Amino acid sequence: GTGLDALIKGKGKKYVGFCADSGLLSNAQNAAILQAESGQLTPENSMKWQSIEPSQNSFSYGGADTLVNWAVSNNKIIRGHTFVWHSQLPSWVSNINNKATLTTVIQNHINAVAGRYKGKIYAWDVANEVFNDDGTRRSSVFSNVFGDWTFLDVAFRAARAADPAAKLCLNDYNLDYSGAKLTNFVQLVKDLIARGVPIDCVGTQSHLVVGNGAIPSFKTTLDSLASTGLEVQITELDIRTNSSPSSAQISQQVRDYTSVVSACMKTAACSGITVWGVSDKDSWVPQTFSGQGYALLWDNNYQKKQAYNGFVTGINS
Ligand code: G3I
């Protein structure tokens, strides 16, 4: 093939992937692009706690099954996303105030979901976004009830037990800048390893902004993450700008995609890159950042943008 996934595999990396879910898989234009360009899928929403266990012990697997079945039958590997996350969490979980109960609830949830997809998941985001931007531990039902980081021990051990073949990742955003968040993230991973918690990979979401000064030195971020000794994955890449960008912003976005992809290519530990969507039309960005968008590689009409060529340049760098 000639798509991004084939290109990056030809250069020794494992995958280029995209997020999707049932709606985007039944969209013919989107599905055709995934067929041609992708070697990996991440469920954008269907495996989140709110989606998959909305009330206790009542599992709703329809959306996740659709994604997994499509990926398996089309030879795409899967990143499972995500178990322990403060967001998209049903209130029956966030209202728990007892450590023993919460421990059992985490174990039961992970045992069920990781068990259902056992053998089909390349990597799981076992925990997501556990840091604040200043590098402190984020407040959540998990951190508040445990009072320390050991909710991670519970979650990673449960995931390893349920699907021993899956790589287990800690995932976060805004690790793209040198500072307390990146430093403390790396230290936490080293601490987890030191106390024998089963962790195999680190995920850096990489929701970036066109022209940000950290992008040209993105390799320093990846090198810091690689200092853990673990596999590094770029898990949710997009590079947003004005929804109606200037020609200068469009050109800068091309260079920025090249910089990020090139940094992965030059970092041995960086195994693959997931882009957080196909078409700008379906991106999360405009709903979250008013007036911003244009973050992905295909435009509102599923036509390749110049950013796609920037991605290719990065692979070939
Ligand atoms: O499906 C319902 C629909 O029935 C309802 O009518 C509509 C009204 O609000 O909401 C729909 O659900 C939305 C869902 O996406 C599916 O489209 C939620 O409101 C919306 O909040 C949700 O947004 C997702 C967001 O995570 C939730 O936190 C985005 O699609 C998804 O791209 C985004 O992904 C996250 C990663 O999981 C973690 N890292 C950051 C990244 C971007 O925020």
What is the topological layout?
Layout: H1 4-10, E1 15-20, H2 22-25, H3 28-37, E2 40-43, H4 49-52, H5 62-73, E3 77-84, H6 91-94, H7 99-116, E4 123-128, H8 141-146, H9 150-162, E5 167-172, H10 180-194, E6 201-204, E7 207-209, H11 218-226, E8 231-242, H12 247-265, E9 270-275, H13 285-288, E10 292-293, H14 306-315
Parallel strand pairs: 1-2, 1-9, 2-3, 3-4, 4-5, 5-6, 6-8, 7-8, 8-9
Antiparallel strand pairs: 8-10
Helix pairs in contact: 7-9, 11-12, 12-14
The chain binds ligand G3I.
Ligand G3I is lined by residues 44-45, 87-88, 173, 205, 236, 284.
List keywords for this structure.
eight-stranded parallel barrel, 2 domains, 317 residues, 14 helices, TIM Barrel, binds ligand G3I, alpha/beta, 10 strands
Description:
The protein has 317 residues and is of the alpha/beta class. The chain folds into two domains: 1-38 and 206-317, Alpha-Beta Barrel (TIM Barrel); 40-203, Alpha-Beta Barrel (TIM Barrel), CATH 3.20.20. It is built from 14 helices and ten strands. An eight-stranded parallel beta barrel has the order 1-2-3-4-5-6-8-9, surrounded by six helices. Helix 11 links the parallel strand 7 (207-209) and strand 8. The site of ligand G3I has 8 residues, from loops.
